[in-house]
Amino acid sequence: MFASCGTASPGTDTPSPAPASGVNTVAGQPIEAPAGAPFMVSSLGVFNEPWALATEPGTGRIFITEKPGTMRFVQPGTGEIGTVTGLPEVDYGGQGGLGDIAFAPDYAASRGVYLSWAEPGDGNTRGAAVGRGTLNCDQPGTCRIEGLEVIWRQTPKVTGSGHYSHRLEFSPDGQFLFVSSGDRQKGEPAQDVSNTLGTIVRLLPDGTPAPGNPLADRGSPADQIWSYGHRNVLGLQFDQEGQLWDLEHGPRGGDEINRIVPGNNYGWPIVSNGVNYNGSPIPDHATRPEFHAPAIGWTPVIGPGDFLFYSGKLWPEWRNQALIASLTTMSLVRVSLSGDNGTEEARYEFGNRLRDVLEAPDGSLYVIEDGDGGRLLHLTPGE
Prior knowledge:
CATH class: Mainly Beta
Radius of gyration: 19 Å
CATH superfamily: TolB, C-terminal domain
């Protein structure tokens, strides 16, 4: 049984430095696809500890956050790789650094972009932060984020450098911003709604608590909380039907996907289908039915990076199935979900840790490898 939250092993490849202009062009290089996979794979460049992928609306450019505090983008049509400036200073170390990126629902008009990252506090403490700025790409090969300001902070800041979570997801109607807030490896605060550790919060796009949140009558910060009792949520996605799901790391065993219901308690650290790192037992979900149990779990763990719900454009049989980038099994894991039940349908083994997966507007897929020298891989239908 493996622990779910280990750090990446360094890769053997290192990124090639970009020219001084910030422009670097790479052609897609075909590589061997996983055995039995219904897709071909090509590589579109190498990155430094990549963490998240997002497609810029309108241009199709893929933006890639890098955990040490840098960001680059790739233009799939030309292979151009560019750089991004105007980024926040991050508390880099352990699982901390630059995190997620999301484009505003009204991006065409506002040019708004959202970032998450780990920031330092007083007395050797740290916490996740979310900021909003505007993206300006008026120079060839480079973009810059302007006016970046923090709109939300995980509270309280605590010691340690793990379980920030800090995934970002807008509701399908664009009205609300959901943020996953990990338990910061502290456990018990996930059951205490007087803080936001171990929660999923629902905010307005300006970072203020959304009206109608289920615990609003308990004051701040409970008025931010949508659900709680979470451990380390590294995936947060709406499916094709508008249902919110999370993808969560367990301890030794117990990685899980949860259907997120407002106000529900998901049980951590009181229950888990894994055990503590020291081998001591944790009661299973089945022993405490008052907590919302996962739709599917994994023991041994898969070590999830992120996931998506696929549209079905190029692989119709995958419509509304979850595709998971797996760190531990080094595979793309395909799962069908219905209600509170899930079934693993397939695994496609890549041989390297996978951090994130993204669907392009045409239905093809991009997968980014983890660690120093992580490659951006493009998946298209096989012949």
